[in-house]
Amino acid sequence: MNNYNINFLKCSDYSALVILCNSDSPLQYLEDIATDLRDNLIEGNILIDQILHSGNNEERFIECKFDQGMFTRNSFKFVRIPKDSEFRKKTCNFLSETSLIEYSILSSIQKKMINKGISI
């Protein structure tokens, strides 16, 4: 399993959704993520979901710009994503299809919700 999963998006405010697959900081993987985005000719706003790193809180989602093959340094910021968002659904679907939440920092209630297909 990779350290992250990239969903390339169409018809969205974001060009890609990056889901962290462990509790590590996303900063550890920025160079690898940048390489994958470059290889797939992706530019624009990127959304990083770090639920397994930070939990389901106001610091869960990070927005940043990816331009000319690199992240724009001052573009990183935490953003609020609505509860009914497709981005939350994509992450929860991905997590329910893997065993990544088994030993995560998520509460048992959150794990049950995800496993039942309920987006958090």
Characterise this structure.
- With 120 residues, the chain is an alpha+beta fold.
- The protein has one domain.
- 28% of the residues lie in helices and 23% in strands.
- The chain is built from four helices and six strands.
- Strands 1, 2, 3, 4, 5 and 6 form a six-stranded mixed sheet that branches.
- The longest helix is centred in the last third of the chain and has 12 residues, at 86-97.
Short structural description:
This protein has helices at 30-39, 51-54, 86-97, 108-115; strands at 4-8, 16-20, 44-49, 61-67, 70-71, 77-79. With 120 residues, the protein is α+β, with helices and mostly antiparallel strands. It has one domain.
Strand-helix topology:
Elements: E1 4-8, E2 16-20, H1 30-39, E3 44-49, H2 51-54, E4 61-67, E5 70-71, E6 77-79, H3 86-97, H4 108-115
Parallel strand pairs: 2-3
Antiparallel strand pairs: 1-2, 3-4, 4-5, 4-6
